[in-house]
Amino acid sequence: MDYFAQQLINGLVLGSIYGLIAIGYTMVYGIVGMINFAHGDIFMIGGFIALISFLLLVSFGLTAIPLILLVVLVVAMLVTALYGWTVERIAYRPLRHSFRLAPMLSAIGMSFVLTNYSQVAQGARVKPVPPIITGGYTLHEGAEGFAVQLSNMQIMVVVVTIALLTMFTWLVSRTRLGRDMRACEQDQTMAALLGVDVDRTISMTFVIGAALAAVAGMMYLLYYGQVDFFMGFVAGIKAFTAAVLGGIGSLPGAVLGGLAIGLIETFWSAYFSVEYKDVAAFSILIIVLIFMPTGLLGRPEVEKV
Amino acid sequence: MTAISTETSHISRTSGIPFILKKAFLSACVALVLFSLMIGIRTEAGPDGQLTFWTRFGDLASIVGAVFGGSILIELLRQWIGPSGAEKLVPPAVQKGISLAGSFLGPALLVFTLLVPVIFYNQRYILDLAILVLTYVMLGWGLNVVVGLAGLLDLGYVAFYAVGAYSYALLATNFGWSFWVCLPLAGMLAACWGVMLGFPVLRLRGDYLAIVTLAFGEIIRLVIINWQDLTGGPNGVSGIPRPTLFGIPLDNSDDGLAAKLGIEYSPTHRIVFLFYLILALALLTNWVTIRLRRLPIGRAWEALREDEVACRALGINTTTTKLTAFATGAMFGGFAGAFFATRQGFISPESFTFQESALVLAIVVLGGMGSQLGVALAALTMIGGFELFRGLETYRMLVFGMAMVLIMIWRPRGIIGHRAPTVYLTKSQAISSDLVKEGHG
């Protein structure tokens, strides 16, 4: 039971990170209708930016950990958002009205560019950081000496995820930008006719998605204590799996899917085999899609003839 | 990153030097923010695990400068060409000449390919490269059945390539079966896997299909890595037998081909044999595809690509249509895999990553989705171009990715962007694929 509780905590933390990345996929898919393959790499870039800005701040002599983390978070979000904006501008906007495979291939190309760009710029070796947030609580002392631990790091990941989610749900449901986004999602031509700047709205979608991916990248960096240039691919695929699992286009679905993937992966590693955890996640995806082709919270696709 | 201003805007026509400079300045500012941390600072783990960093402001400055200059250059070029794009650059007479030459291109290319081993007999490097290109031509043609004809987006094609390669490798190393027995078996096994993938995804469309095929490809690769008893895991399978000419080995032994023919042995014989083997396999793929397009099933594939609902309304069984498309495509992938295994003599899961799937898909899309000649040309361009940049090491994938993005922006419909209809009334007329609507397959 203790073991189960511990795995539940670990799974929720991992799921939060996946959920943050998945939101970027699901928002972009909802509006533009394309798989943003480069999003996983945006997450990786976010991790790198966080690492570098952290190093810089420490070398400037800053010692207050909360202040450092806040500055790193803001810097990572801003710079990564600019990456998201640039990628959209270069690789997707010229292909806006092209046939549906063109932006996807362009996105795959962009993903290769970003992966290898950071390999060239920062080297191929794994970049470790020492644990920054330490300490935690022991929730329950088990009989066999097994204790259920909840670290401050885990609390922070979950709290930041929930805070950002609340913020972005508010953004999408209550603000002008959110209304524009929902309008573009339904009908871009009509939205344009009614005075919505479609290009700007789509750009903002990429910017928001990239900013959330940067947060995920920073959480990954803090939680696992390392980044490398190749981490975007697998994380990206899993986050996309999460987005599809939750029903692509749905914000709560993305988080739900992220949590589901995180939990499946953690429990599978804990009770069965670590080697096959990715196989389990992907198999669940296939099984869910067979029985619920639009995911958990997705709307059924209506096709007009 | 210099292509920031590649979108077609109408404002640029009415602008002068201040506008261009302003735009270039903005691009440079964006570049400065983008690259300041990633290029300006270089981090590396020290010997004791401690991270160190040093600055590279020189590199940063030169990159930002390049973005500034490139932005001006692109803007000037665009104003010179005009808003309607590059079509104006080519006069109609030249275009007519090109299209006339285009109709001879296919046969000319085939004749040239047949002659490659004769012309480049002593250049091992070119022969190896030609074999590699032909392997990708074959993979492209195989995937073309699924993506180009049936319109089913498959991001896990490399799984069938892997199944074919491992089928041959394991059958040959464990049971000692010959290549010619294993080749059809590898194709059949891959086709079975194609059907196995096809069944669950029958109801899925578009991007859902894409992600499931991607997941399938990853599952196959992960299973290969982890099932160490059977596949050797990350170490792969080595000592895969070389192919024989129907039982006659192509080596230096007494019963080898050279000895039987009474000519002096040369290792090039095997390379030339492999070349013609993959050429024959690729041409088989091409021939089967062309023939299938004239059969009801091929017509059903193309109808499925254009409109699935109309297909069902006309009484086409979409289940069998999709499954045969997956199975046929997978079978050719399996053949190519078996060939790959016998050529390399060693296979490991590293050869079957998502990158390969993306590469083959890029070949099909760049080739123009459904055009056989286009796929061949795209494979030649991509693999040949990839080889040109071999000296650049890590920059190679960077250049490759950029090329993919730029080609998509330049010609989203691929190199050969028109479709030759399979059925016509009095004369065949190529249709620009801008007019062809893709279904949501």
Keywords:
A: 305 residues; mainly alpha; two-stranded antiparallel sheet; 11 helices; globular; B: mainly alpha; ABC transporter involved in vitamin B12 uptake, BtuC; 2 domains; 16 helices; 8 strands; 65% helix; disordered N terminus
What does this structure look like?
Chain A has helices at residues 2-32, 39-59, 65-92, 101-122, 152-174, 176-186, 188-193, 198-224, 231-246, 251-271, 277-291, and strands at residues 127-128, 136-141, 147-151, 226-227. Chain A is mainly alpha-helical. Chain A is built from eleven helices and four strands, in the order ααααβββααααβααα. In chain A, strands 1-4 form a two-stranded antiparallel ribbon. In chain A, strand 2 (136-141) and strand 3 (147-151) form a beta hairpin. With 441 residues, chain B is mainly alpha-helical. Chain B has two domains: 2-85, no CATH class; 104-410, ABC transporter involved in vitamin B12 uptake, BtuC, CATH 1.10.3470. Chain B is 65% helix and 5% strand. Chain B contains 16 helices and eight strands. Chain B has helices spanning 17-38, 57-81, 92-119, 124-149, 158-175, 179-198, 206-226, 228-231, 257-261, 268-294, 296-306, 308-313, 318-344, 354-366, 372-388, 395-410; strands at residues 41-45, 51-55, 237-238, 244-245, 248-249, 346-347, 418-419, 431-432. In chain B, strands 1-2 form a two-stranded antiparallel sheet. In chain B, strands 3-6 form a two-stranded antiparallel sheet. A two-stranded antiparallel ribbon of chain B has the order 4-5. The longest helix of chain B has 28 residues, at 92-119. Residues 1-12 of chain B have low confidence and may be disordered. Classes of the chains: A mainly alpha (305), B mainly alpha (441). The interface between A and B is large, with 74 and 69 residues.
